[in-house]
Amino acid sequence: MADDLDDIDAILSDENFDFVGQSSQENIVSDSACSEDFVDDFDDAWHAELEDALLEGFVDHTIIRNICKCRILPPIHRAEVWKICLNIASRGNALNCWDGKLDLTEQNQIHEACEKIVDQSKTEDTEQALANLELIITFYCKSRAIKYDTEYAWTFLLQPMLELPELDRADLYNCFYAMLARYIPRESLPDAPYNLFRLILLYHDPELCSFLDSRKLTMQMFMKPWLRTLFASHCKRPVTLALWDIYLQRADPFFMFFLALVILVNAKEQVMNTMLDKQKNEIADALTEFPVALETVDVEDFCQLAMYFSDKTPQSVRKGYQDALFSGPMSLSGSKESTRVERELAQSLCIQVAVPDILLSAQPDFSSDERSESNQVRFFLVDCRSPDLYNAGHLSTAFHLDATLMLREPAEFKMAIDALSNAQEQAIQAGSAAGGEHLCLIGSGVEEEDQYMYMVIAHLLKNHRSYISVVRGGFKSIITYLSDVNINLSEWITGTSSPKQLLNLHKSSEHSFESAKENAASSSSKAPTESGTMESFMKNLSITLKSKSHNIKEKVTKFIENTHQEDDMSHMNTNYNGKPYRGTQPVFSIGDEDEHNAEEPYPNVPKKKEPVYEDSDVDEDDLVDLDEWFKQHNVKNPTACFLVLQTGRRFPAHLAVDKDDMVCLREYKAFKKSKIVTRRSLALVSKITSKRSCPELITFKFNVPTEGENEDGEAKSVEEVDRYLIPEAGQATKYIKQQIMRVLDAAES
Q1: Which position among 228, 524, 655, 678 has the lowest Cβ density within 10 Å, counted as fewest Cβ atoms?
Q2: Which class is 184-230+250-348 in CATH?
């Protein structure tokens, strides 16, 4: 692991690799298809071998790869090799069946775009080049029933081909069609490739990814022209030709992601040190222009670094998404599969690894000699399930980490993380089958149980730990897969339970949570139907505001002036009940007495159905555009956060304060909109609490008036609770408290 980091650091250092300097002669890592021969080679013997093979005929892509070994091609053979790599060498002229009419609604836009590209090209016959471009794009739109859009940047994709005189009009169309089909992500999933790239960046450089996220800079803002044109729009023409030589030999559509990753890693220091005061659009524009500095002599080192990162990325990235993004059956926008892929990539906390890849890495008989010669990613497996489930059965090579310690016993959790790092390092040094520099966490496969594991993942990423992934489907999917392929579980699984018991255990675990949901839905309370409910409610609300505003204002003032209190560790409950975010005494609060009980976390909260916030349940009519809503309601300082349910589930949201209310808008990324899920009057805030073990977790309590009066003649009320995980909790709560005082001042007067 240390040696690999030394290698990559050497290549990235100024004296070895610079987009505008001399290229490195050092070889790091390459894949099996373009192996040890991908180094600077001053012997042109392979040129003659390539020429002989092309003259003999019967050359396919495999022969080309074996001869060229991912090197820049001789210009004289470039066009012929490209046709072989794209598998169009013997394809006919598709334009013969077309009448040649240029009568699309967008024809003027097509002509102008083609004219602009031809003016920038070095073709001798510009009129013929312009005619070819316009015919090709028009025919493609008609044959595919696509409405032309300049954002597609097809002219940039065609421009390098124009400079190969050996390609006639039919070849140009066939090359263009094959490039779009194989290497350009589908328009039916517009956000998926960029969300996938973010996960790849997060896997290799979480610090840089966190910086871009903090500036709200999405990958689309700078990557879109790279992906749509394979860098042709932002590279010098000789650089593009050399880059495509290697790209087409590799025949890997995902290679573009790793080329983009190299650019970002190379630009990291400049971005994080010199662009701190820049707006996100300025940063995006600067990043987009970085490939312009590439020179032809840099291309092989550029690709070599991309191969390094490719080899260091789990193959599940390709296997899981290639069909959806590139070469599989055509995925229609809005279909069930496309929606699943979009949602999974948008909501994933980290890369998900398929079970076969985990088992391949965890083979007990995988020798250290074989390991040193293989580019297979090696995982250090971390089982984050409860001790009972782990002891019942686990992979024999998995390290156990009780994820609940993070909230229950923070000190012990820190010790466990240190022990994990030590065990990982020892396993790597010993050449053990359990050793690997890539951490892969295993959950149960049940969403509610795995919330603790997600918090551990977030903790590791926050501390800039690279190579973090999770097993797709958790331990349940491991058991299911081994059973489906008729593998004896005892060969892989160690524990106290029999194989049959393990299967039943995980089925019953999932069933118990489903039953809990059904019971919660069936036991939801009925709304009162008494006459005069609205009038009575408004009367009680008015009385409550007038009678308590002065008292609450004093408590808010006292809280703002004295936010630092002595630590009180009596909140650590030894009889931990396994529910997240519960069982601890408030660190700060608005109120004179301690109402918190470790055995009954929220005694005044009425038992009611837990709200469900699933994308499939939302009505699009209830969704709002976040920026427009903020502007319409004059919201200042909206806070990005997570809405935390009592079950521990978290959902991305924004907390906003308008004139009189605190509003939570839950994000629905699949729709790129938000929904108002709670609206609370600031005048009804009775208490604000935080956890010592997790200060970012803020709990707001509200005394909500109900019908009737209590024994003392006061208006009845119930306590309702909202919880949020707020990264900048201090600033957010300070602003909310200031708004509470403003509302209370108004109510008092």
Answers
A1: 524
A2: mainly alpha
